[in-house]
């Protein structure tokens, strides 16, 4: 279990936060940040390790959210089961979209465009279909019992999302150190070369997309349990597609802790913008996110994790011209 | 049953709208043909140009059709500068980074407009907005007729630029073989920026043509760009005739499907067509080679 030492340290340290008597506002901030981190962890599996940049991860987030909400509200399914099926739904959407696009060999710009279009189709469908509550949205009944996966205290929700993030961290670490992960990175670096060496690139990308979809869907499932409401704009809107790719890029694309670090930074910036303007500035937080996205790609293409690695190697190995390759 | 007159009217209207779609798609396909990336900031730039046309009319009293002469060069400059000083240096020559940077710019532009002008919807009321030519069986609104003619004039000008000038030759050289063009002494960064500028000038002209008969708000451009994506995919990425014909086809398809299916489903129809074309024939009908 040595390989999970870093994950264990981070998760245990974060789990102790509610015991320090922090305010509900702080806890709420951390819960939302962890939820965004989870969505970003999903994006990171496909985009970070596999190099397939999706611009429509809302398709997974929204599907997870709607499956969890609709199954509970309209079909009386238990919340835990609905939550699990929501995650499965994300994997299924990943399989469908991935199956269709990877088989026809869509890459790069095309892949970004198709994922964006799928998210948009789902948004339009969800805004007119009666089963999703159409334009009104779906409200989940308040029922604060663990059996309904709703909790009285913020701390319980916090530990729940932290546990989900921890699972995603372990999954990511497993992928990174597995043969599958090596294949995935090989596809990212040079798909044709990887295929020539016998890697089944289509199958590898498809599996990555299903894992990616499942993880991001889990964030959507959690959203519903926490906020008890979902509509088409929240579920399939651009905001979540942007945040899902922003967090790993800021934190460090293709690193285990990148999305978590990125989500905390992104959310802190968003909150700071709200504070400065008193919440009277629609769009300002997204202006900041967009600027940060461009600046990070420009000046720190390996994100904050990359910067940290660079700093550490400079501090502990002061050898002259310690070359750090750019990815 | 539908009378032939209604059907003809729908088709003619579709062609008139489709011409403006084609112009937006032209800008997109031009950038794709040379830089080999989709410019995800295209929609946000269209919105920005629509705001510019709106304020040119409201604050300065400049007629939108006259504003073309001012906004096209201005937005050429904006596009040139964006590519030369932001997108190019920021993406370190990596396509995936370029996509992300254009996406980032789209988010910034769209939300800066939201921040500045809120979500309010604005319209200009031209005195001649409702004028037109009555052909008996069909009424041709004047603003859209002017738009139709302008689009073809712009296309012709662009075609002349591409075939008869040194800049055009350089653009085509870079599109075909970047390294070879560079070795032949062509400044690729400059040509990239010129192309991006031309693409942005196209949306500026489209914005001037749209504003008399359409509204503007911070997300107004998005609807058009999703249509433009479809057109570009349908016509073949990077193909100029594909963008023109694709634009007219999509205009007619949209007009007919909203006649038969209603407004909201018409939009889904375009999307489904889009996804179907991408999956079945990603190179598009006019199959420009990647």
Please write out the topology.
The complex is a heterodimer of chains A (327) and B (290).
Chain A: H1 5-15, H2 24-49, H3 58-75, H4 79-103, H5 108-128, E1 138-139, H6 154-176, H7 179-189, H8 191-196, H9 201-227, E2 229-230, H10 232-236, H11 238-251, H12 258-277, H13 284-299, H14 303-316
Helix pairs in contact in A: 1-6, 2-6, 2-9, 2-11, 2-12, 3-4, 3-5, 3-9, 4-9, 6-9, 7-9, 11-12, 11-14, 12-13
Chain B: H1 4-35, H2 42-60, H3 64-91, H4 95-117, E1 132-134, E2 139-141, H5 142-164, H6 166-176, H7 178-183, H8 188-210, H9 220-235, H10 240-261, H11 263-280
Antiparallel strand pairs in B: 1-2
Helix pairs in contact in B: 1-5, 1-8, 1-9, 1-10, 2-3, 2-4, 2-8, 2-9, 3-4, 3-8, 5-6, 5-8, 6-8, 9-10, 9-11, 10-11
Give me a quick take on this structure.
Chain A contains 14 helices and 2 strands. With 327 residues, chain A is mostly helical.
Care to describe what's here?
The complex is a heterodimer of chains A (327) and B (290). Chain A has 327 residues and is mainly α. Chain A is built from 14 helices and two strands; from the N terminus they run αααααβααααβααααα. Chain A has one domain: ABC transporter involved in vitamin B12 uptake, BtuC. In chain A, helix 3 packs across helix 9 and helix 11 crosses helix 12. Chain B has a single domain, classed as Orthogonal Bundle (ABC transporter involved in vitamin B12 uptake, BtuC). Chain B is 76% helix and 2% strand. Chain B contains eleven helices and two strands; from the N terminus they run H-H-H-H-E-E-H-H-H-H-H-H-H. Chain B starts with a helix and ends in a 10-residue tail after the last helix. The interface between A and B is large, with 40 and 46 residues.
